[in-house]
Specification:
- α2 runs parallel beside α9.
- It is built from 16 helices and 26 strands.
- β20 and β21 form a beta hairpin.
- The longest helix is centred in the N-terminal third of the chain and has 17 residues.
- It has three domains: 130 residues, Rossmann fold (3-Layer(aba) Sandwich), CATH 3.40.50; 224 residues, Rossmann fold, CATH 3.40.50; 98 residues, GMP Synthetase, Chain A, domain 3.
- With 520 residues, the protein is an alpha/beta fold.
Length: 520
């Protein structure tokens, strides 16, 4: 008899990945969050009960379930329970305003919304704005919290004794719709199937060396695909031990790394910088740390050198990608960090990547082009958005919207977002290049370079700088430094000083907010 008649025999879904790890490593520590600790056997059994509980409140296969919550064991369990039920997860950025949350809920058609006590008010306010949300699931938090009245409680759903209804789920069924923050006015929902996410797990395990013996700390928001699917998901797939926290502040991170002897940690450059600058920084407390990962934006070369000097035992990886590719696309490994500083490396195992001209020809070495991909990691398309889907896959390649150069060895370096290139006096300036130059000044803690409206230049190259504590810096010093080391049209025309740069919870600089702040 043909195997296609028995799809369950060949099934490989996100929930199957957890089940198989629990079969291999039942007594191993799977999840620690606050005072909660689960072995793989306990985690897997709880996920099945929670999936049955969700079925009991009417969550059907294929239903969209929005999740607006901070990191917790509840979030982790819900992620796998939705997969086991065959429902589609729609994670939402908890930094959004109510009308932005409502847009995503409405666009996705979510009828159920999972949230926690701290975000319940935002969740209910958003759901009231012409959405289909009809019921709520309350998730526990890292610290003890009171359940919210009128919501289905996580602990009660996870105590369900009813059998889980049979799910005819296949690898090509939808697992999640992840909305991208993008430069457009409305976010786009990237539709990712179980097999796309799992092929991506395989690339992460191989290229980022995620391993069974890892003690991984997951501190950046799980609603973001980097923490959820490059680190937490592959760690469960391979059988690592995982510590989850919702508080990515230096003092708390250092304490957790020391307490749980964490060996593996991911954070965007902004969080690594915060760790280095923290009064609590103590290399002896971080001696267990062996693998450090960064992404979301490029690590300044001077910070890379500082990390190598102050944490010499930590091997570093730069991971580049985007939501639409689930999200890992390329990787720069430990041996190349200082040999190819600033590069995002080469395509990972299950990805093919090119840098091309507008006519889809490969660029010459050193020439700027757009990064395009082919991969089983890729999304099916944007949910209910055929026009933007067609544009993204023009010419049978996925167009990233990122501009890059490629060197003679095939290493790719992102120079800017296509839409973030500063056009000043008729010249194109990559903000990244100016930022690297400004970072050479010892007094600079952080810098973002943006183009601001200007009567003469149309867009004036503007550096917004956070100065290190105990240091001083003037606009004239910055402009003079840049003028001495780079073409005059690239040097900042203005320098602004601020106490902090706006960032989202995943650590990305919000340059649009900077432009809005300083325009007008």
């Amino acid at each position: 008899m043909h195997a296609a008649l028995h799809p369950v025999v060949r099934r490989q879904t996100i929930a199957d990945a957890l089940h198989r790890t629990a079969q291999r490593l039942p007594q191993k520590s799977a999840v620690v969050c606050g005072t909660t600790q689960w072995t793989y056997a306990e985690f897997n059994a709880l996920v099945t009960r929670l999936a049955a509980g969700l079925a009991g409140i009417g969550v059907a296969q294929g239903d969209k379930v929005a999740v607006l919550a901070r990191n917790s064991h509840g979030f982790a369990a819900l992620r796998f329970a939705l997969a086991r039920r065959g429902a589609v997860m729609v994670p939402i950025n908890f930094m959004l305003k109510a009308d932005e949350v409502a847009y995503i809920q409405r666009h996705a058609g979510a009828k159920t919304l999972a949230t926690d006590s701290g975000l319940a008010e935002l969740a209910r306010t958003a759901a009231a704005l012409d959405t289909q949300v009809r019921q709520y699931v309350w998730l526990p938090s890292e610290d003890p919290s009171e359940p919210v009245p009128g919501m289905h409680r996580f602990d009660e759903l996870a105590a369900c004794t009813d059998p889980l209804p049979e799910v005819t789920l296949g690898s090509f069924d939808l697992a999640q719709i992840v909305y991208t923050s993008g430069t457009e006015s409305t976010p786009k929902g990237a539709m990712l199937t179980h097999d796309a996410v799992l092929w991506q797990y395989v690339s992460c395990v191989v290229n980022a060396e995620i391993a069974e013996h890892d003690h991984a700390l997951h501190a950046l928001p799980l609603y973001h695909c980097a923490q959820l699917d490059v680190f937490f998901g592959p760690a469960i797939y391979i059988g690592s031990s995982n510590v989850i926290t919702a508080k990515p502040v230096p003092e708390h991170l250092i304490a957790l790394i020391e307490k749980f002897q964490i060996t593996s940690f991911f954070a965007p450059p902004t969080v690594w910088i915060a760790l280095l600058r923290s009064p609590a920084f103590d290399a002896t407390k971080l001696k267990s740390l062996a693998k450090g990962y960064y992404g979301a934006s490029i690590m300044p070369v001077e910070v890379l050198k500082e990390l190598a000097s102050r944490l010499p035992a930590v091997r570093l990886w730069n991971l580049y990608g985007q939501t639409e590719i689930a999200p890992l696309a390329t990787m720069l490994g430990p041996d190349d960090q200082l040999r190819k500083p600033g590069s995002c490396g080469k395509a990972v195992l299950n990805v093919e990547t090119r840098v091309v001209t507008d006519t889809m020809q490969d660029v010459a070495v050193g020439e700027v082009g757009e990064i395009v991909h082919r991969s089983p990691h890729l999304m099916l398309g944007y949910f209910n958005d055929p026009e933007r889907t067609q544009a993204a896959f023009d010419g049978d390649w996925f167009h990233s919207g990122d501009l890059a150069v490629i060197d003679a060895e095939g290493y790719i370096t992102v120079v800017d977002r296509k839409k973030d290139m500063i056009k000043t006096g008729g010249e194109n300036v990559a903000s990244r290049e100016v930022e690297e130059m400004v970072y050479r000044l010892p007094a600079v803690s952080e810098v973002a370079v943006v183009g601001l409206p200007d009567a003469k230049w149309v867009e004036a190259v503007t550096a917004v700088i956070v100065v290190k504590a105990g240091h001083t810096l003037t606009e004239a010093e910055v402009i003079d430094h840049c003028n001495r080391h780079m073409a005059a049209f690239k040097a900042p025309k203005r320098v602004l000083f601020t106490d902090s740069l706006p960032k989202n919870p995943s650590g990305k600089l919000l340059k649009r907010e900077l432009r809005q702040r300083y325009t007008g």
